[in-house]
Amino acid sequence: MADAPLFDTLTIIGPGLIGSSILRRARQTGPLARRLITADSAPAVLQRARELDLADEVTASLTEAAAKSDAVILCIPTGAIRPVAAAILPHMRPGSILSDVASVRSTLGPDISALLPEDVSYVPAHPMAGTEYSGPDAGFATLFENRWTLLVPPAGTPSEAITTMETFWQRCGARTRQITDQYHDQICAMVSHLPHLLAFTICDTADRLSADLRADVLEYAASGFRDFTRIAASDPTMWRDIFLTNRDVLLATFERFEKDAHLMVEAIRNGDSEAITERIRRGRRIRQGLIENKQA
Predict the structure, then answer these.
(1) What's the pLDDT tens digit per position in 214-250?
(2) Which of UniProt's keywords are assigned here (predicted)?
(3) Rounded Cα gap, residues 230 and 240, in angstroms
(4) Is the domain of 268 the same as that of 237?
(5) Is 294 in a helix, a strand, or coil?
(6) Taking a C-beta distance cutoff of 8 angstroms, is the pair 176, 170 a contact?
């Protein structure tokens, strides 16, 4: 017997890469929600969502969508989550769930918990999946398949709501784990935010080279540089918000990286082949670990 839908009506605010992937998954598999609504403030995004038939209802009214829903997931830039949550929470039904997919928690948990009406739960989650593309066309139903989704429910969240959202993400194909806000931000600073900072900076450096050298760098780019450019193609607004929101943790992580990079530079300067080789071997072990964990 097929699983019954988890929700009667699910609203996705922001049908970009993550949001449209959830909607496509729901369309493809069925057991997420009986009815789908997507909402956004951008007319062009709404028009494209209609053209792609991402939801049963496409609307510019975030509050009306929230009022009709058993669950609302905010798939919007980190800097927009607080004001949008504050706007829609007074309209949400008793017994409903608010979630978001922010990649920085910071103080979002306590801030939004303080706004919750009676009998509305807040269960944020961060799917550790994505590409450099954005917008309604970027999503695909298998984006979350066998990827981790980190649930970060605030203290005091009803266990039933946590279980429901954990089941939701598992039905999206994800592996799930619950962690704290602070630990989440430390992990993401290392595995996501620092790599993006480095990629943006390397590409910015390449862009500032002399015209002839810049042209040849782009012409003869090898796979290593191309990998950096793929990451650097990510959405500027989203990553600006992430860097500023997770500033303290990101800077501490960068300082750790800076020290390690300096040690590698010194090993190269001193011709210390043993130290160079050992650091390269460590990097290979990290890659091998990702492959064994099916995250490569």
Answers:
(1) 888 878 777 788 888 888 888 898 899 899 999 999 9
(2) Oxidoreductase
(3) 17
(4) yes
(5) coil
(6) yes
